[in-house]
Automatic annotation (TrEMBL):
InterPro entries: Cys/Met-Metab_PyrdxlP-dep_enz, PyrdxlP-dep_Trfase, PyrdxlP-dep_Trfase_major, PyrdxlP-dep_Trfase_small. It is an enzyme of class 4 (lyase). Its cofactor is pyridoxal 5'-phosphate. This is Cystathionine gamma-lyase. Belongs to the trans-sulfuration enzymes family. One of its GO terms (molecular function) is lyase activity. The lineage of its organism: Bacteria, Bacillati, Actinomycetota, Actinomycetes, Micromonosporales. The keyword Lyase applies. It comes from Actinoplanes sandaracinus.
Length: 367
């Protein structure tokens, strides 16, 4: 039976009911486990390779992404594991020029030193011919600019040229879009953001149907060790139960916030892929099942952005996004190639009327 999102999120990765047992078993705190003195390891031998709490979380994410999944200690641990497991000296990787900045920094440092060439492509295109490219990493919607690309068309073009396609699904989450169903070979994501959504866990994951491909990533993880701990895995799994509810409120808040921002003459560059006037809208509305709660806009200067963030009571100045608390991040302070007054605004799950009132007062006070 196929269930809808709320039901899938609540039940993802839970074991079959067992009398006297909790719905979601608690974290197992173990590094080594007892071995059979004669036959050695059973299901669990050593936590870097096998961990029941981590396995339950992976089963939950698998239920949402639609393919076997490996959890990592952070999004960057997952992305770098994927890149290093797949790419070899002489290979070329295509990366988004407007995507998560640490991925570009890794390509321009470690990958370059290993003899891997990088081609940077803006998410909105135009895309080059992929001939000679080993791996195409797409990030859609791209963080922080919120451009969206056509995963189905780009996967077909990449496969035609013999390239693998990975999609960073951090911003959308698996309830927002399923890149594997659109033709991608791999999904990679940070679970630190909306997937877990409480700003208290670092997490990453890689999902793929192809056992050989996922096996390479698993071997990489086993040999380098970037696994999430038991408590973080459990917290993440516990948080996924409310993913549908949190996303629904965040999306509704983003629609209200984007509408307010568009109505103001002292705010420019408002981007939200759910706005019919947004350049991302045509592809986003065809490809995505819901639009994330992230809005971006420009307040003109670093000074005004600072005054706005100081005046707002319900908007925490913070990096990261997708949490239950509304936050905003002036990306230029991190070296992102964005204007000095550009904010990535992440809607939390507060009540829309309170957010709009706070936003209006802070915009007025900072003008
Ligand atoms: C945050 C983020 C990452 C990195 O994830 P961490 O969990 O911080 O390591 C990767 N990709 C995107 C799109 C992100 O937003």
């Amino acid at each position: 039976m196929s269930h809808s999102d709320g039901t899938r999120a609540v039940h993802a990765g839970l074991p079959a009911p067992a009398v006297g047992e909790p719905f979601l078993p608690g974290p197992v705190f173990a590094a080594p486990y007892h071995l059979d003195p004669v036959t050695g390891p059973g299901e669990n031998g050593y936590a870097r390779t096998e961990h029941p709490t981590r396995r339950a979380l992976e089963t939950a994410i698998e239920a949402l992404e639609g393919a076997p999944t490996l959890a990592f200690a952070s999004g960057q641990a997952a992305i770098t594991a994927l890149l290093l497991a797949v790419l070899r000296t002489g290979d070329t990787v295509a990366l988004p020029s407007d995507g998560y900045f640490t991925v570009r920094a890794f390509a321009e440092g470690t990958l370059r030193d290993l003899g891997v060439k990088t081609v940077l492509v803006p998410t909105a295109g135009p895309y080059p011919d992929f001939t000679g490219v080993r791996l195409v990493l797409l990030e859609t919607p791209a963080n922080p600019g919120l451009d969206v690309c056509d995963v189905r068309a780009l996967s077909a073009a990449a496969h035609e040229a013999g390239a693998l396609v990975a999609v960073d699904n951090t911003t959308a989450t698996p309830l927002g879009q399923n890149p594997l169903a659109l033709g991608a070979d791999l999904v990679v994501a940070s679970g630190t953001k909306a997937l877990t959504g409480h700003s208290d866990v670092l997490l990453g994951y890689v999902s793929a149907h192809d056992p050989t491909l996922l096996g390479k990533v698993e071997t990489w993880r086993k040999q380098t060790g970037a696994v999430p701990g038991a408590f973080d895995s459990w917290l993440a799994h516990r948080s996924i139960a409310t993913l549908d509810l949190r996303l629904a409120r965040q999306t509704a808040n983003a629609a209200a916030v984007a509408g307010l921002l568009l109505s103001r003459s002292d705010v420019t560059g408002v981007r939200w892929p759910g706005l019919p006037s947004d350049p991302s809208y045509p592809i986003a509305s065809a490809q995505m099942r819901r639009i994330p709660g992230i809005v971006s806009f420009d307040l003109g200067s670093a000074e005004r952005a600072g005054r706005f963030l100081s005046a707002a009571r319900l908007v925490f100045a913070a990096t990261s996004f997708g949490g239950v608390h509304t936050t905003a991040d002036r990306r230029a302070q991190w070296g992102d190639d964005t204007p000095p007054g550009f904010l990535r605004f992440s809607c939390g799950i507060e009540d829309a009327a309170d957010l709009l009132a706070d936003l209006t007062a802070a915009l007025d006070a900072s003008a």
